[in-house]
Design brief:
By secondary structure, the chain is of the alpha/beta class. The protein contains 16 helices and four strands. It has two domains: 2-170, no CATH class; 182-300, no CATH class. Residues 86-294 form the DUF2268 domain.
Length: 308
């Protein structure tokens, strides 16, 4: 197994010094092109035919700093992710997370992995709802995390990377296509966050879980989601998974769900599953969602107690 690191800090430095008219293409070729396999799998155009069309740059600009704004003015944020020790810790986290699966008998089907850390846009409403950091690891072999560097987000990068590594492993064994259900996404996010906290502790629980209190989970989220688990179509799933605020930002129809309802529900559903079955997080990660959901029927009617 080989873990490859794309040192985004060096690319940001290069783009910051480039003429304005060269920044977008430089970003596309140096930051986005190494992930070409990922974009192809997701059917995301590398470069839109229409200058105003959707492509990898448009996607980056939703939460990341746009290439046009990569100037010397971002020097403080850039400095925060430029230390060799930062990248070494991130690389070690990715290696450790993946190695743990092989050590527990999961034979990974992908041997080469690429990851990077992108700088977030402080004015992105979606990123700010996530307290300044997020990740993308659903395409095996490719992991991207995005953050606005500060005292809160930087220590959480390792947990975020572990979360995305869990997705990376799961989708080597579980097929993702247009038929994906809300139940699968609840299970997937629950597995990823339980995996991350099993390594780094619940103090690094992501805001997509920690912002939800027991009353909201038990009275508002669980009674609704229990009847929507077979829902398909991402436009229909997203409001239940992300909540109304993020749904509106993505132009989906709100469904009266709080922030990241599906993430929080999935986290506690998987905790319930692991405690009930005594299975390891490693075995659970490659278990089909339907099998997991069949084992947790009691979860929906039992009051979940949130400690802390």
């Amino acid at each position: 197994m080989k873990v490859n690191v794309l040192r985004s800090d060096r690319i940001y430095h290069k783009i910051a010094q480039a003429p304005h008219e060269e920044k977008v293409e430089l970003f596309r070729q140096e930051m986005m092109a190494p992930f070409m396999e990922k974009w192809n799998i997701q059917h995301i155009p590398f470069k839109a035919a229409d200058p105003n069309g959707f492509d990898v740059i448009t996607l980056n600009n939703i939460m990341g700093i746009s290439p046009e704004h990569i100037t010397p003015a971002i020097s403080s944020d850039l400095e925060a992710i430029s230390a060799d020790s930062f990248w070494e810790e991130c690389e070690e986290t990715v290696k450790k997370s993946l190695d743990m699966f092989t050590e527990h008998g999961v034979k990974l089907r992908v041997s080469d992995y690429l990851f990077t850390i992108l700088l977030g846009n402080r004015k992105s409403p979606a990123l700010m709802l996530n307290e300044g950091y997020t990740g993308d690891g659903g395409i095996p072999g490719h992991i991207i995390c995005t953050l606005v560097p500060n005292e809160y987000t930087l220590p959480r990068m390792k947990a975020a990377l572990a979360h995305e590594c869990n997705h990376n492993v799961r989708y080597q064994f579980i097929q993702w296509d247009h038929t994906v259900t809300l139940g699968e996404l609840l299970v997937s996010e629950g597995l990823a966050e339980n995996f991350a906290t099993s390594i780094f502790g619940e103090e690094f629980l992501g805001p997509w879980v920690s912002k939800t209190d027991a009353n909201t989970l038990n009275k508002q989220i669980k009674p609704v989601l229990k009847n929507q688990l077979q829902l398909t179509g991402f436009d229909k799933i997203a409001p239940y998974l992300y909540g109304d605020e993020l749904a509106r930002l993505q132009h989906f129809v709100p469904v009266q769900m709080p922030y990241c309802a599906g993430y929080a529900c999935g986290y506690y559903l998987i905790k319930f599953y692991l405690e009930k079955t005594r299975k390891s997080i490693f075995e659970a990660t490659i278990t089909p969602a339907d099998q997991i959901i069949d084992e947790v029927k009691g979860f929906w009617d039992e009051e979940t107690i949130i400690v802390g």
